[in-house]
Amino acid sequence: MRTRNLNKMTNDEVEAYLAKNDILFVPVGVVETHGGLPVDCETILAEAYASRLADAADGLFVTGLPFFYAGCTTTGRATVQVSIEEGVKYLKTLARSFLKQGFRRQVYLTNHGTAYLTVGTVIRDIFDETGAPLLYIYPQKYRKPAERNRQTATDIFCGAYKIMGCLEDIPLNVPEGRSISYEDKPQWLGFAQDVMTAGPPSGTLGHLVTEPTEHVPTMVLHSEEEREESAKRGIATIEEAVANIHIDVLLEKVRKIDKHFQEDVIPRNPWVPMSKA
Known about the structure:
Elements: H1 11-18, E1 23-27, H2 41-57, E2 60-61, H3 84-101, E3 105-109, H4 116-130, E4 135-137, H5 150-163, H6 193-196, H7 224-245, H8 247-268
Parallel strand pairs: 1-2, 1-3, 3-4
Helix pairs in contact: 2-5, 3-4, 5-7
């Protein structure tokens, strides 16, 4: 295919794809303070995963969904905060459109910690409304826990920007400042971990980071060569996670689940208020 990015395809190319398959990856982004990285880095990372997974699954992907619920990072003035309610409304509108277009198997992707508050609601509501079992994947789940540190975080974001063709967007030699730190600092109200962990992460208590520097310290990048090397390591980490997801297996199971719902569960339970999509 010339491209798998639906945004960059012609209408005829999309129709030709839909004649043979029905898979669409939807990366859900966020714009928030993120150390020495551009504030759209979580959006670019989701798009990079979507691109690689689309290649692996013979699917398409969309781009350009950056503004959703950021969470606790509004102490950084670059953070764009969209309420969970508004984000759900918008994403459900898109999901309904994608279904009407023919994308029966939709996969929503994000590495952002609070995104489940938005995406999980969409997954359940769209199923209850239409009977279509959409899928939500959190790629970080498929990475090795030991790799989750400042160096790997910097690498994986550099890798994502490289995959999406915009590595030069990551600045070099960024000095420390009010929102940029190269040192690990206590996060998430460290003195109140018993409160913060009483329920699901980022969904237990309304809170803010005290200073933007508390949110994801990164490594300083000194040169273009160092940035390229970081990107190489990051791409390897992303590709390892993509391989661990086994997306073809998951999507085949989604297809079988959908068939089971439509042919067995829903007909046996006609009182369920659901209209087929």
